[in-house]
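Input record, target 12 of the design panel.
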C-alpha cells in the first residue's frame, strides 16, 4: 500500500513539473516571436531561472539589472538611472516612463521582473545565496507498424535529459544527455561549469559555450565564423560568452573561455579582454584526409553516419579587446582555426 501511495505521489509531482515546464515552453515560443528570434533553446536555462526568480526592481542592485541580457546597454543604463531617481516603483508598467524605453523594451522584461513593497527586503536578499536545481527530461517512443527501421543501430526510443545548478551570479553548472531515435545510448553528452564575477574576473567557463564577438563576428564551432545576422540579435549582442546546455550537437565550442577587466585607455570608462580556446571532434564528410562539408544534424542512427561521426579534430582560439567610452565603443578581434 505504501509503495502504491509513493508511486502515486511521484506521478503527481512529475505531472505538476511537466505542466510548469510546458507553461514556460509555451511562453518561450511567444517570447521568440516578440524578439524576432528563430530559436531560444540555447538560452533555456537562463530564461527559466529569471522566469522562476524574477528581479525585484525595488530591492535589486546594479549587478541584478545586468542579468537582463535581453536589454541593450543603453536600456540598462536608462533603467538604472530611473531606479536611482524614482524608486520605489508601484507597478512594472511604470517602466514605460524610463527614458528611451518603448513598448518592446517592456515586453522583453515583463515576465522576468517584479515589484514588491519596500519594507520586505529579506526574501529578495536571500536570492543571491540560494542555489537552484533544475531537471528537464523527455522520453519519446513511437508506436505503430513500420516504425522500427531494421537498419537502426539502436532502439526507436528517444531520450534527453538536462540537469543544471545555479547560485545567482556566482556559480553555474549543467550536464545534458541526448539519444535520438535509432541511436545507441550515450551518443551525445555535454556540460559546463561557469564561475561568475570575482574581482577582475567577469566570467570563466569550462566546458561547452558559444562566443559572440561584436555586432557581426560570430563563431560557435563547426567552422561557423564570419559575418552573421545572429551577431545583431537582441539576445546575443550583450554577452561575449554564453554557456551551452542544449541538445544541439553542433554549433558550439568545447574548452575554456574567460572574460576579465583590462586597463583602460584615456577617456575610456571601461575595458575588457576576452580569450578562449576550444578543442573538439566534429562530424565531417571526409575523403582522403580532406573534408568537403560538415555534418550538423547530429544524427547517428545508421552505420553510414558512424563513418562521419567525430572524425576531425578542430582547434579554435580567439582574443578580443573592447573599450567603452561615453559616446561609443570599439573592439579588436582575432580568430584562429586549425584542423
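The sequence produced for target 12 reads:
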Amino acid at each position: 500500500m505504501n509503495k502504491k501511495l509513493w508511486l502515486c505521489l511521484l506521478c503527481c509531482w512529475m505531472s505538476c513539473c511537466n505542466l510548469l515546464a510546458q507553461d514556460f515552453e509555451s511562453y518561450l515560443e511567444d517570447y521568440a516571436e516578440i524578439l524576432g528570434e528563430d530559436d531560444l533553446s540555447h538560452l533555456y536555462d537562463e530564461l527559466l531561472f529569471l522566469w522562476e526568480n524574477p528581479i525585484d526592481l525595488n530591492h535589486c542592485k546594479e549587478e541584478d539589472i545586468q542579468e537582463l541580457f535581453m536589454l541593450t546597454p543603453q536600456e540598462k543604463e536608462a533603467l538604472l538611472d530611473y531606479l536611482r531617481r524614482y524608486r520605489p516603483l508601484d507597478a512594472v508598467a511604470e517602466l514605460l516612463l524610463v527614458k528611451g524605453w518603448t513598448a518592446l523594451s517592456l515586453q522583453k522584461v515583463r515576465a522576468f521582473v517584479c515589484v514588491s513593497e519596500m519594507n520586505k527586503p529579506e526574501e529578495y536578499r536571500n536570492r543571491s545565496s540560494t542555489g537552484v536545481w533544475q531537471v528537464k527530461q523527455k522520453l519519446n517512443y513511437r508506436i505503430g507498424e513500420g516504425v522500427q527501421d531494421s537498419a537502426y543501430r539502436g532502439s526507436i526510443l528517444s531520450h534527453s535529459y538536462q540537469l543544471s545548478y545555479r547560485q545567482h551570479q556566482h556559480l553555474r553548472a549543467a550536464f545534458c544527455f541526448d539519444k535520438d531515435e535509432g541511436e545507441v545510448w550515450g551518443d551525445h553528452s555535454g556540460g559546463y561549469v561557469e564561475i561568475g564575477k570575482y574581482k577582475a574576473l567577469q566570467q570563466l567557463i569550462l566546458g561547452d559555450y558559444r562566443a559572440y564577438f561584436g555586432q557581426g563576428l560570430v563563431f560557435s564551432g563547426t567552422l561557423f565564423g564570419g559575418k552573421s545576422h545572429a551577431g545583431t540579435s537582441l539576445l546575443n549582442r550583450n554577452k561575449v560568452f554564453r554557456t551551452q546546455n542544449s541538445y544541439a550537437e553542433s554549433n558550439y565550442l568545447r574548452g575554456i573561455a574567460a572574460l576579465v577587466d583590462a586597463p583602460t585607455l584615456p577617456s575610456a570608462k571601461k575595458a575588457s579582454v576576452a580569450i578562449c580556446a576550444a578543442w573538439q571532434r566534429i562530424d565531417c564528410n571526409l575523403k582522403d584526409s580532406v573534408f568537403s562539408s560538415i555534418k550538423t544534424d547530429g544524427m547517428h542512427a545508421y552505420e553510414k553516419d558512424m563513418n562521419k561521426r567525430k572524425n576531425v579534430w578542430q582547434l579554435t582560439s580567439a582574443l578580443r579587446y573592447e573599450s567603452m567610452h561615453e559616446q561609443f565603443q570599439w573592439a579588436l578581434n582575432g580568430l584562429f582555426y586549425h584542423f
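Helices lie at 2-35, 44-52, 62-65, 73-86, 103-109, 122-125, 303-306.
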